[in-house]
Amino acid sequence: MPSAFKSTGPSVDREQRPDRGHSVIELSKDLSRAYIHLAVKNVKLNEIVMLHLYCGRPGQLGPILLDFSLLGNLKQYLSDGVLNIEVKNEDIVNPLAHGHGALAALTVGCPIVQTIPNDRVRAIAGMQAIANSGELYFNLHTKGQTYFGDIRGQFAPVVKK
Description:
Blueprint: E1 20-27, E2 33-41, E3 48-55, E4 64-67, H1 74-77, E5 82-88, H2 89-98, H3 101-107, E6 111-113, E7 116-120, H4 124-132, E8 136-142, E9 151-154
Antiparallel strand pairs: 1-2, 2-5, 3-4, 3-8, 6-7, 8-9
C-alpha cells in the first residue's frame, strides 16, 4: 500500500468515532451545476487530509468522482464545520486529469456503465444517474483514518412525488 494511504491511528469502528457528518446535494434543473452542502462535527481541521465524492454501493470502496482538494483549501472550506460549494461539469473531469498510473485507473473516475469501465462520468448528469442508483457517497479522510476514511455518508436518492 502506498505510504500516502497508510493511517496513523488504530482502526476504530465508525459507530465508536465521535466524528459525524451530514450532506445534501442539490442539482440545477439543466444539470450543469451541483450545490453541495456538507456539515461535520468533532473533526480536527489539522487532521483532515482528503475529502472525496465517490461512486460505490454501501459498504464498498469505489472510485473518486470529485476531489474537493482540487477545488480549493479543504481546511479553509471546513473551518466552521460547514462546506457549501458549487460544482460544475468541468470539476468532475479534474480528477481524471490528475490520475497517473495503474492505481489511478482503478481509483479515479466513475464508470458510466459497470460493464464498460473505461467510459467515465464527466458531467453532473452522470453524477445524478449514479445518485439515483444509490451508489454515491462522501468520504472525509483524516490522518488517523486515511485509507478507508473517517466519515462516510452514502446518499439516498430523493424521489419527487
